[in-house]
């Protein structure tokens, strides 16, 4: 049994209690994914499973046998920054940086959800095929990612900078 | 508190007040800051430039390693068992099942824990970081609900957590005082801390108040709060013989090293604490029991240990802000001039710590009133030691003060800004000291214009859009300019024209290293790319906590002193045959990677040239900052004018902050980007304080009931509108770099601005935080 983390095959741990988060942090030394609560309440541990965002603290590693996981370390290739990582720097979308990997992974998948027309609590027309990526949509959809430093304005600006102008461009 | 401690405190207070009087009367030139920092005159350089954080690439790629992320060979994982009673004794704890569980290496209780020397609290000892004076796992006594009673070490976290579930402590409960009413009845004491006594009486305020034609006299209350930094408190420790290395998440780096050394009876240099990145602090990331427990367990097991508190664990053993009950009374003449101001607060602390939330601090310097009565009284509750949290004192104190000023404005039919400005004092009302900088009128006027304050209706409940009532509110925030003793730094210049500045600073997101690299580069006349700032290691120079918005000033003053010394030595090296020959250190400054005569920059020699002529590869100097006497010679404060617009749903009572603007009078801003983030972050914590944050404390048993991020609500993306911030950028002539700290001012005043806006929207005055929708229905 194995899962694929950032393109690399990784054996599923023998202890079935091990969460995906602990597998990443404690066994694979991929500590970019953070633990802020271990209870699904903060979003710091957000990773991508084939493009979908999940909180990895509430996921058992064994459940992801055969699946492809992308963490903050695997978001961009060959030493480059993902456009959203660069935008976070440009807009000061963090202070301590602890929520940052989770915010970035979450936002990448969130933009995908918007482009697929998945409605949210603030979407006014649930029947519409397209959902506009406005600031309230971003805020609502990112509300599962807490930032105690309060870098929220910068995060929203960064998301717009990276994805706002070209809404058709696929979230990488 | 023991009689001895009380006597000691009284003595400290007397000594402090004598020093204060002497420093107040000293000539300006004798006091640090009497000669303005030359950096104040540098314009159009690096100071204030919005330079991105130097550690930004590490933070966005996940390569910045926090305390729980340092890999060590053979490391064990720890889990803690917390007491479920508030006071009494642990009578039995059978450890056999846990010890036999898979992977378990150690179960540590008071029976087998190494003996540790007791620590003084950090409010009573300048070197200590300890929050309370309790022994750590040394005996069977229980002092609060949540106190650690056992620690399990195992090969994996899951094994440790499972083994911990096999421990079933048996307690013999004693009588705990967990109800605030009972604690108050048992006796109140006037708050005193670090040589300050939180009581001021000028004139007979109560009599003056009673005779005033217009008065407000109300009770305001705020609940307990927790910092909830997103990073869990964590520590990774390893012993090498008697040398201890600790990877900690701390805002008290050097103090933690001293404290661990003291507890384990080691020399200070045998303990090295690293903390290059801290995932948020806000006052909470200090020395609590977990660092001592991890080090003790590692010593016993003979292996490295990682201890990460669970989120619940953070609530159990890391204290937060106390609840407050505050009486705020203002007596005024019909024209709005204040005659009497009364601010009395009652707060909780514990028998084993001393932190009487200093909620009158902001009231001391805010308004001119001839009669003042201010006092903080504390009751002793059996609970986890309360501590400093962002804007200690002012965050909650300004809620009462600035709500009351708004209430008075309503009673007088006056604009609340005009009422505030009418009562601006000419010197600090309680100390009589002159202000070093005060641009309160400017921030109110500029802020009002930018915010569109003139569009506000003075009568509440006038603006409505469908179900939504809309209101505007304003309040003033204030926070002292602090500088701590103990600032020191090391500065190295190399022959290739590069520099390194090193100090035991802490980076919790404020941008410490970035800002000081910037300042150092500007002083030296080097580009940013040629300066490295290193922080986060307790063996570097300086012993300054990142608290009280004082870190930048404290290390900034040390770097200024270090730079001065460096210039002197460079001039010595340059000798008598270069372009700088015959010049004194005061006549030169850093320019174009070298030194130049201030009024004749053609007399210039590069660092490279000076060092190579002297045959040196580099020059390193170290210096300490002078004692921060300037804060006793001038009244040094930051101010804010907070403007807020809220929308309140008339049907459901739901409250949304739709606009918020903060105008700041904080001296020179050193980095526009990181400062703006500090302002915004603190304002957001102020939104939490106003609308949602509350640590729920079960008064029956002293247990915190909402020990999770699901049940303790902090502001999320959807709660936060775009926040506008602006600042005067006027340097404080007496502060290092002309700058004030900017980390805490934003939370002060914010809750009152929101409460005042809620009143303006609905006509309902809420005096008990948080303003939840049930209070509006
Ligand atoms: S750590 Fe997974 S949601 Fe908080
Ligand atoms: S940057 Fe610190 S929690 Fe978001």
From TrEMBL, chain A:
Keywords: 2Fe-2S, Iron, Iron-sulfur, Metal-binding, Oxidoreductase. GO terms for molecular function: 2 iron, 2 sulfur cluster binding; metal ion binding; oxidoreductase activity, acting on the aldehyde or oxo group of donors. The keyword Iron applies. It holds the Pfam family Fer2. Residues 1-75 form the 2Fe-2S ferredoxin-type domain. This is (2Fe-2S)-binding protein. It comes from Rhodoplanes roseus. The lineage of its organism: Bacteria, Pseudomonadati, Pseudomonadota, Alphaproteobacteria, Hyphomicrobiales.
UniProtKB/TrEMBL annotation, chain B:
This is Dehydrogenase. The keyword Oxidoreductase applies. InterPro entries: Ald_Oxase/Xan_DH_a/b (IPR000674), Ald_Oxase/Xan_DH_a/b_sf (IPR036856), Ald_Oxase/xanthine_DH-like (IPR016208), AldOxase/xan_DH_MoCoBD1 (IPR008274), AldOxase/xan_DH_MoCoBD2 (IPR046867), AldOxase/xan_DH_Mopterin-bd_sf (IPR037165). Keywords: Molybdenum, Oxidoreductase. One of its GO terms (molecular function) is oxidoreductase activity. SUPFAM superfamilies: CO dehydrogenase molybdoprotein N-domain-like, Molybdenum cofactor-binding domain. SMART domains: Ald_Xan_dh_C. It comes from the Bacteria. Residues 61-175 form the Aldehyde oxidase/xanthine dehydrogenase a/b hammerhead domain. It comes from Rhodoplanes roseus. Pfam families: Ald_Xan_dh_C, MoCoBD_1, MoCoBD_2.
């Amino acid at each position: 049994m194995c899962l694929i983390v950032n393109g690399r095959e990784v054996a599923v741990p023998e202890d079935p209690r091990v969460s995906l988060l602990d597998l990443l942090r404690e066994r694979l030394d991929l500590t970019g994914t953070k633990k802020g609560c271990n209870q699904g309440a903060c979003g710091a541990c957000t990773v991508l499973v084939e493009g979908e965002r999940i909180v990895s603290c509430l996921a058992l590693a064994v459940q992801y046998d055969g699946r492809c996981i992308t963490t903050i370390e695997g978001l961009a290739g060959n030493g480059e920054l993902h456009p959203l990582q660069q935008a976070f720097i440009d807009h000061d979308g963090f202070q301590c940086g602890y929520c940052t990997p989770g915010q970035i992974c979450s936002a990448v998948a969130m933009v995908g959800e918007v482009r697929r027309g998945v409605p949210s609590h603030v979407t006014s027309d649930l029947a519409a095929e397209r959902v506009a990526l406005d600031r309230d949509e971003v805020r609502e959809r990112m509300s599962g990612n807490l930032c105690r430093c309060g870098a929220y304005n910068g995060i929203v600006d960064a998301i717009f900078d990276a994805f706002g102008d070209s809404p058709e461009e696929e979230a990488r | 508190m023991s009689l001895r401690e009380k006597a000691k405190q009284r003595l400290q207070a007397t000594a402090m007040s004598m020093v204060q009087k002497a420093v107040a009367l000293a000539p300006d030139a004798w006091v640090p800051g009497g000669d303005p920092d030359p950096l104040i005159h540098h314009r159009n350089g690096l100071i204030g430039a919005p330079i991105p954080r130097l550690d930004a690439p590490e933070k966005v790629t996940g390569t910045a390693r926090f305390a729980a992320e340092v890999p060590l060979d053979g490391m064990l994982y720890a889990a803690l068992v917390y007491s479920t009673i508030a006071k009494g004794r642990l009578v039995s704890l059978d450890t056999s099942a846990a010890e036999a569980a898979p992977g378990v290496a150690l179960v540590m209780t008071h029976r087998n824990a190494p003996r540790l020397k007791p620590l003084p609290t950090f409010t009573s000892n300048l070197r200590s970081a300890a929050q309370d004076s309790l022994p750590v796992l040394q005996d069977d006594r229980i002092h609060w609900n949540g106190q650690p009673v056992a620690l399990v070490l195992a090969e994996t976290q899951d094994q440790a957590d499972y083994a911990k579930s096999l421990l079933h402590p048996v307690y013999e409960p004693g009588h705990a005082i967990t109800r605030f009413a009972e604690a108050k009845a048992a006796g109140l004491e006037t708050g005193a801390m670090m040589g300050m006594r939180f009581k001021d009486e000028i004139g007979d305020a109560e009599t003056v108040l009673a005779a005033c034609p217009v008065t407000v006299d109300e009770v305001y209350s705020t609940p307990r709060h927790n910092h909830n930094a997103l990073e869990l408190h964590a520590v990774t420790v390893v012993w090498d013989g008697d040398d201890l290395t600790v990877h900690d998440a701390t805002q008290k780096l050097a103090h933690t090293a001293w404290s661990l050394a003291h507890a384990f009876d080691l020399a200070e240099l045998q303990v090295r604490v690293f903390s290059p990145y801290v995932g948020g602090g806000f006052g909470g990331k200090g020395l609590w029991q977990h660092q001592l427990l991890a080090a003790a367990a590692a010593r016993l097991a003979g292996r490295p240990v990682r201890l990460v508190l669970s989120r619940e664990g953070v609530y159990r053993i890391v204290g937060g802000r106390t609840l407050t009950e505050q009486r705020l009374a203002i007596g005024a003449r019909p024209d709005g001039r204040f005659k009497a101001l009364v601010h009395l607060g009652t707060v909780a602390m514990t028998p084993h710590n001393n932190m009487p939330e200093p909620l009158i601090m902001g009231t001391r310097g805010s308004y001119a009133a001839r009669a003042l009565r201010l006092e903080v009284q504390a009751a002793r509750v059996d609970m986890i030691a309360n501590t400093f949290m962002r804007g200690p004192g002012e965050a909650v104190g300004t809620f009462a003060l600035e709500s009351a000023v708004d209430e008075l404005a309503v009673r007088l039919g006056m604009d609340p800004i005009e009422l505030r400005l009418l009562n601006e004092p000419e010197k600090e009302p309680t100390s009589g000291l002159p202000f070093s900088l005060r641009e309160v009128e400017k921030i109110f006027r500029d802020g009002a214009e930018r915010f569109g304050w003139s569009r506000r209706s003075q009568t509440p409940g006038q603006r409505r859009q469908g179900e939504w009532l809309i209101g505007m509110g304003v309040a003033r925030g204030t926070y002292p300019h602090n500088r701590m003793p103990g600032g020191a730094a090391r500065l190295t210049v190399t022959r290739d024209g590069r520099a390194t500045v090193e100090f035991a600073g802490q980076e919790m997101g404020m941008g410490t290293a970035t800002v000081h690299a910037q300042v150092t580069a500007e002083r030296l006349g080097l580009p940013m790319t040629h300066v490295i700032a290193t922080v986060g290691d307790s063996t570097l120079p300086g012993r300054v906590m990142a608290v009280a918005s004082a870190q930048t000033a404290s290390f900034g003053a040390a770097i200024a002193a270090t730079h001065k010394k460096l210039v002197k030595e460079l001039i010595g090296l340059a000798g008598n045959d270069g372009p700088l020959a015959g010049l004194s250190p005061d006549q030169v400054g850093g320019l174009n990677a070298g030194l130049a005569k201030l009024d004749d920059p053609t007399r210039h020699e590069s660092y490279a040239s000076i060092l190579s002529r002297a045959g040196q590869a580099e020059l390193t100097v170290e210096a300490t900052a002078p004692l921060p006497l300037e804060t006793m010679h001038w009244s040094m404060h930051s101010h804010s004018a907070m403007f807020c617009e809220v929308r309140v749903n008339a049907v459901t009572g739901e409250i949304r902050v739709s606009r918020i603007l903060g105008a700041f009078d904080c001296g020179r801003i050193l980095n526009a980007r990181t400062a703006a983030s500090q302002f915004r972050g603190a304002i957001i914590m102020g939104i939490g304080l106003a609308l949602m944050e509350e640590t729920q404390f079960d008064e029956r048993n002293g247990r915190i009931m909402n020990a999770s991020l699901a049940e303790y609500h902090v502001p999320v993306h959807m709660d936060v509108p775009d926040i506008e911030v602006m600042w005067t950028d006027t340097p404080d002539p007496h502060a290092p770099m002309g700058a004030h700290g900017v980390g805490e001012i934003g939370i002060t005043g914010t809750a009152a601005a929101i409460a005042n806006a809620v009143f303006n929207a609905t006509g309902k005055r809420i005096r008990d935080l948080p303003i939840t929708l049930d209070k509006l229905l």
